[in-house]
Amino acid sequence: MIMKALHALFLEHPTICTDTRKITENCLFFALKGPNFNGNAFAQEALDKGAAYAIIDQEEFKTSDRLLLVDDVLDILQQLSTYHRNYSKAKVISLTGSNGKTTTKELISAVISKKYKTIATKGNLNNHIGVPLTLLSIKEDTEMAIVEMGANHIGEIGFLSTIAQPDFGYITNFGKAHLEGFGGAEGVIKGKSELYDYLKTNDKYIFLNADDDIQKEKLSTYTKKMGFSTNDHHYYNIKFLGVDPYVLLEMEGIQITTQLVGKYNFPNCCAAILMGKYFNVPLEDIKSAIERYQPQNNRSQILSKNGFDIVLDAYNANPTSMKAALENFSLMNADRKTLILGDMFELGNTASEEHQAIAELAKELGFDDAYLVGGNFHDTNTTLNKFKSFEDLKVHLSKKPLKKGALLIKGSRGMALERVLDFL
């Protein structure tokens, strides 16, 4: 099918569905395939539930004129999203990085939407399917689109950049995340920098954290850039005032009291402030947007329950974010501090070394109690409490309940450590 014709059809039916359980009236259903499913087999069901058309790529499923046959459904979805991105008048800001992508994206969206009609990636739909779906959510009146891009191997950010074709870009940091897929720390830097490569090749604009030596070096000769720093006056200065437990900062003499825990969230706020400055959002609106933003979905949330003051950071974990969380928690004022840490995933052959380092840091920082959960932590050489599974931890705490006080809960998503809240 000619892309112009498909796009015209999309403008008539501007809702995309890829799951028959979420069909809406007059949507376009894209029959994607996965390891354990074939969307083609559900295309007729999508029509029966109200979809206007279904896009399929297996001829045996074409049983009506409303089933549109293409060579590859995923490829067509990606091509359509790029076509729509260029059809629209919206400016696209793409961001990636090892840690803090989603929080930073939401902060940028909060600030930019104070002045512009803005759409942003929903949740963390930041892969080869999520990025196209975000681009296809651009409306006629959208002025700014903030597109989060995730990756776990070399080449992925470069590919997503060709789909999104960003006008602006930002990398949060280069940390120890997805080491298995990237082949180590150098691979992470190379993979995430593919966004820089795209932006520089296409003469686009880059935002940077000038206090990050890697970013500063990589962009030392590039001129279309704007950065923030706490000490380098060649860049926009933002002061870090402290954290207890929330980040306090100052821009141009205006103090901002955030609802974000941990110094590691300071640069995330700075990125949003920087873009607000670039796009001429009034300072008071920048302040208001950042102060009102509250983290959700187990990301550095502050909760109180049954005498516990809880830092719930159970959405994800890698060695860089784990170290930052521990160091931040150690600085919090509390009579008693307890850790519950879960395994960090996708570390490949560095898993043993990285889990050992975190166990040693937890011991060194001298918390009142610490509980390490998961096969990797269970294999560490430490005197801290270790449990091979969450169920083992649950049994232990049913017999010896946690003592009330401050509690940090952090681990990779697959550990689902938020379950601890159920039996405090």
TrEMBL record:
Enzyme class: ligase
Name of protein: UDP-N-acetylmuramoyl-tripeptide--D-alanyl-D-alanine ligase
Pathway: Cell wall biogenesis; peptidoglycan biosynthesis
Pfam family, one: Mur_ligase_C
Known role: Involved in cell wall formation. Catalyzes the final step in the synthesis of UDP-N-acetylmuramoyl-pentapeptide, the precursor of murein.
SUPFAM superfamilies for the chain: MurD-like peptide ligases, catalytic domain, MurD-like peptide ligases, peptide-binding domain, MurE/MurF N-terminal domain
Domain Mur ligase central: 96-275
Domain Mur ligase N-terminal catalytic residues, every copy: 16-60
Keyword Transport: no
Keywords from the UniProt entry: ATP-binding, Cell cycle, Cell division, Cell shape, Cell wall biogenesis/degradation, Cytoplasm, Ligase, Nucleotide-binding, Peptidoglycan synthesis
Name of the encoding gene: murF
Annotated Mur ligase C-terminal domain residues: 299-380
